[in-house]
């Protein structure tokens, strides 16, 4: 008999067909709206598998799904899940690493370039018809090439960012991570630093670490004070790694020069956020992996992870291997 899958993210026709060949599928298109949430709650008691993204699946919801065997998240970040709870219940959680690494690094570099060269601010200025003579120093930006790139969280995305900075722009690379990465040091000539030293030395500080209990609020007023007034800060990890009020104060008071932000404490970013009134901010709507090709590759990866788990096999991208070890 086919197992029941609740899908809380729309798939391409090809992937939907693939999933439906193996499972009975219920699609909940908008689980964050009251109607969608009610339908999700109705579907959970029958669910053996869940597939989707960007939804906080806490115990309050998952307790409604006593038959649940596996969740396939269409993301690499797993901060929307309570890993201890899932592991205690024996539910396999998988994610979609690797397939989004290069695209997310592209986004990080786009933010870094746009912020340093004031691309959005000046493009808006041109569009508003204000370009009436050659620009002067009031409109100059900062160089990117040759400047020091500091990467906090030297994992897959951090490394792809280092590759762009080192080989593309001749940037000296500094990094901070849990552990030293000899292959990164060798390949990019990267230097390991404590977090404080990196913040003090780097011209660009880019966050590429996961949101965990340990990293929540990692960058606050004290850390911004360690950066210099010319420092450009880029966050493509998760909003809550940063104390957003402290970031706003640092940007308003010239403690740092500018910020390129893809992620925020609250998403969607509220329209009255002070960040949207600052000309030294480039804000994008959490588009790290949002290209046609990469989102399809992520969805494919999640479908295969889920079908593998529901077939009683170990999914390739298992996040909580302790569940498997107990079997
Ligand atoms: P990854 O390969 O697991 O890399 C994360 C790195 O962070 C690891 O190298 C880890 O160090 C380091 N790290 C973890 N906790 C740390 C801490 N407390 N202090 C210092 N370093 C720490 O993950 P990834 O694939 O690169 O993805 C990273 C994150 O990017 C994801 O978790 C997600 O939140 C975010 N992301 C955002 C978007 C977007 O749309 N903006 C898209 C994709 C991913 P060790 O290796 O030493 O343990």
UniProtKB/TrEMBL annotation:
Residues 109-288 form the D-isomer specific 2-hydroxyacid dehydrogenase NAD-binding domain. Gene3D superfamilies: NAD(P)-binding Rossmann-like Domain. Keywords: NAD, Oxidoreductase. The keyword NAD applies. It comes from the Bacteria. One of its GO terms (molecular function) is phosphogluconate 2-dehydrogenase activity. It holds the Pfam family 2-Hacid_dh. Its EC number is 1.1.1.43. Coiled coil: none annotated. Transmembrane segments: none annotated. GO terms for cellular component: cytosol. Residues 5-320 form the D-isomer specific 2-hydroxyacid dehydrogenase catalytic domain. Belongs to the D-isomer specific 2-hydroxyacid dehydrogenase family. This is Phosphogluconate 2-dehydrogenase.
């Amino acid at each position: 008999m086919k197992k029941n899958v609740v899908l809380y993210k729309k798939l391409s026709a090809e992937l939907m067909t693939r999933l439906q060949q193996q499972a009975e599928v219920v699609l909940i298109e908008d689980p964050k709206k009251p109607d969608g949430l009610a339908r999700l709650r109705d579907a959970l008691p029958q669910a053996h598998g869940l597939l989707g993204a960007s939804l906080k699946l806490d115990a309050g919801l998952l307790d409604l799904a006593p038959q649940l065997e596996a969740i396939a998240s269409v993301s690499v970040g797993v901060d929307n899940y309570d890993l201890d709870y899932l592991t205690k219940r024996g539910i396999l959680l998988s994610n979609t690493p690797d397939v989004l690494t290069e695209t997310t690094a592209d986004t990080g570099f786009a933010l870094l370039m746009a912020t340093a060269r004031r691309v959005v601010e000046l493009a808006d200025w041109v569009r508003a018809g204000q370009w009436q003579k050659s620009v002067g120093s009031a409109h100059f930006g900062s160089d990117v090439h040759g400047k020091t790139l500091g990467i906090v969280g030297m994992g897959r995305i951090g490394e792809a960012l280092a590759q762009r900075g080192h080989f593309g722009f001749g940037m000296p690379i500094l990094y901070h991570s849990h552990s030293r990465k000899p292959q990164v040091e060798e390949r990019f000539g990267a230097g390991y630093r404590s977090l404080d030293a990196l913040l003090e030395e780097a011209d660009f500080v880019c966050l590429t670490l996961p949101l965990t209990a340990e990293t929540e609020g990692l960058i606050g007023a004290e850390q911004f004070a360690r950066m210099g007034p010319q420092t450009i800060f880029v966050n493509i990890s998760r909003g809550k790694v940063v104390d957003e009020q402290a970031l706003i104060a640092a940007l308003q008071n010239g403690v740092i020069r500018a910020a390129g932000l893809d992620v925020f404490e609250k998403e969607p970013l509220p329209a009255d956020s002070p960040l949207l009134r600052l000309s030294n901010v480039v804000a994008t709507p959490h588009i790290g992996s949002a290209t046609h090709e990469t989102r399809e590759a992520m969805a494919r990866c999640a479908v295969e992870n889920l079908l593998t788990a529901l077939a009683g096999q170990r999914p390739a991208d298992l996040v909580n291997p302790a569940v498997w070890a107990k079997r």
